[in-house]
Design a protein that fits this description.
This protein is of the alpha+beta class. Helices cover 23% and strands 25% of the residues. It has helices at residues 63-76, 98-101, 148-153, 155-165, 190-199, 202-208, 221-231, and strands spanning 12-17, 20-25, 34-39, 83-86, 95-97, 111-114, 119-125, 129-135, 140-146, 173-177, 187-188, 217-218, 239-241, 266-272. A hairpin with a 2-residue loop joins β1 (12-17) and β2. The structure holds zinc ion (ZN).
Amino acid sequence: MIRFINNENKTTRIEKRGDVEVIRPVIFDEYPFIDAFFSTRMGGVSKDEFASMNLGYNRGDERERVDENYRIIKKTMGLEGLDMIKSKQTHTCNVFWTKDLKGRDYNDVDGLVTASVDEVLVTSFADCVPVMIVDVNKRMCATLHSGWKGTLGNIIKNGISMLRGAGCDVADMKVFIGPSICKDCYEIGADVADKFRSVYSQEDIEKILGPMRDRKYYLDLHEACRLNLLHEGIPEENISVTDMCTTCNGDYIFSHRKSHGLRGTMCGFIRLKDGM
Ligand SMILES: [Zn+2]
């Protein structure tokens, strides 16, 4: 059974297509030209800790199985024939327009931006925070990998600057902070807590750093990302935060913490559809 944050299921919707189950952000439902979803563990062919929809090649799963999982996702979700843009994420704050990545290697890229309708932007996660931003007027989108390092370094600010540079307006940006570790699950050390204290204001820190429990700190990365968005001028009502935590639902979505690192990888997919 899926556990929802605060026991409320309002911002995500499970979509079942045969054996494949994906998570849809409700905030994008009213825009038919946005196709965005997150994979779950359901519907793939991988085994054991990778069972079953593992979309990561670098954690020990058999390459053929991961290939097959991508094939299943593309076929089931109607993405065949589209260009899948997938970068090598390394917890940087580097964001690129996909057109500028052609001919470059895809290493150390944690954010992708596009205005193309022929591409699917793919980012990988297993507790880190996915942030999808769409300018619904200009029809451009960004997908960002904002773990604690990306949140601290503010990859969100970089993604928004790039959209702004292309003429986008924050008032037209709709944002989904995707399935990732919740504030009750995300225990951090004093060193990480100190880093956040050095970057965020005292007022913000009170919102994102929970009271110590058993001499441990707890960080609300969702709220930290939301504050990064608000500080860039995104209207509060344009931001939707996941009601699903990866770690609370380790059997349903891959979670690094829940599995102690023995895990597969989930992906966020976003594309802009033509003619809608
Ligand atoms: Zn949780």
